[in-house]
Specification:
alpha/beta; seven-stranded mixed β-sheet; 198 residues; 35% helix; binds 5-O-phosphono-beta-D-ribofuranosylamine
């Protein structure tokens, strides 16, 4: 299962996927390329460290309903890898409907909350500010509606009275590092079927 990762950040989740792959824990999933919209992002360094094709594709500048030059460039670069699965691991841009339709529901996203709670940016801070006692992380299929595609799997994190926002952020990230490789392995096994794009 040819897998492409898109990300903008430090790449800790990409690292957990690559470590799982190195220990033969990703099943038939094979990470073939990593693309970023941030030239000096950690995710590209992580990918290069593991010897995976890791490319800065320039900014991804489109609004959700239109597509421009950068959309075409991104689609073409990703399509050249013939992906069976595209993983958004900290990709901080909203993909156009054109991009989503082009890849026909082969895209998953990792989100740091128990969706449908706390969609959008700064989800861990939102959960902290709300005072919830259980939060976590979610992997879902990407649809045209932000953070609203069909949920694939989740991992819960309890917020204790000893937690600070920083410790909660660490706990959610640790949960993500378990969840994402498990989901990718299960998709490769055929446990999670691809949905129709909605
Ligand atoms: C993760 O918390 C993910 O849920 C969110 O962006 C963060 C990426 O972190 N979408 P990293 O780049 O994988 O370290």
């Amino acid at each position: 299962m040819r897998t492409v990762i898109l990300g903008s950040g430090t790449g800790s989740n990409c690292k957990s996927l690559l470590e799982s792959q190195a220990s033969n824990n990703l099943g038939s999933a094979k990470i073939v390329a990593i693309f970023s919209d941030i030239e000096d992002s950690g995710i590209l360094e992580v990918g290069r460290h593991f010897g995976i094709k890791s490319v800065y594709l320039g900014p991804y500048n489109i609004s959700s309903d239109t597509h421009g030059e950068s959309d075409h460039e991104w689609i073409s670069a990703v399509d050249q890898e013939k992906p069976d699965l595209i993983v958004l691991a900290g990709f901080m841009r909203i993909l156009s409907s054109y991009f989503i339709n082009f890849f026909g529901s082969r895209i998953i996203n990792l989100h740091p909350s128990l969706l449908p709670s706390f969609k959008g940016l700064n989800a861990i801070n939102q959960a902290w500010d709300e005072g919830v006692k259980i939060t976590g992380c979610t992997v879902h299929w990407v649809s045209r509606h932000l953070d609203m595609g069909k949920i694939i799997d989740q991992r819960a994190v309890r917020i204790s009275s000893e937690d600070s926002l920083d410790s909660l952020i660490r706990k959610v990230h640790i949960a993500e590092h378990f969840l994402l490789p498990t989901v990718v392995e299960n998709i490769a096994k055929g446990t999670h079927t691809f949905p129709y794009c909605d």
